[in-house]
Amino acid sequence: DQQVKQNSPSLSVQEGRISILNCDYTNSMFDYFLWYKKYPAEGPTFLISISSIKDKNEDGRFTVFLNKSAKHLSLHIVPSQPGDSAVYFCAASARRGTYKYIFGTGTRLKVLA
Amino acid sequence: DTGVSQDPRHKITKRGQNVTFRCDPISEHNRLYWYRQTLGQGPEFLTYFQNEAQLEKSRLLSDRFSAERPKGSFSTLEIQRTEQGDSAMYLCASSLVAGNVNEQFFGPGTRLTVL
Q1: C-alpha–C-alpha distance, residues B31 and B11, integer Å
Q2: Which of A43, A49, A93 lies at the smallest CB-CB distance from B91?
């Protein structure tokens, strides 16, 4: 039972354009969402997060949007840079008890120079 | 470097052997998590500690797996009688729960290959 889904395994975007990565979740108890970036042979690196009381959070080139009614979140990267090429994982958590993260399967982003 | 560290980075072992991994979290973090990641999947939660207490274990953690955090600082994950299905990247993360914030910081992982 995949509670967090990233349906696009890969995405290619031209440098300077917008990258949009999508994530869907099924558990309505989730109230905290995060995006992590992962390079090969490294652990995931925290990118940006959003609480369920918000619908948007921005940090520089990165913006996360949350649509609670659709149980959907997205990550926008503008402008995309070649260094953004990595695997992006969406994660969700219920902020009580363990605070454990449930991860999606990842989307491999390739930014073309 | 004050991030999360893991040792070893790579481990190759034969089926049936025991292996132990170590994780050193960020020093002031009170929570420590272990995850496992296999090819094409996201990290999957295995277990977590609040200080030295192990408070939850996933059903993925069979009886062959044991984790400890004896003094509330570093943690070890032991796998006994390894099987080929144990081959994966084992990730450790730590966090400091403060209010409603719980960002987990991940180590580089230990890649286990069971032959």
Answers
A1: 25
A2: A43
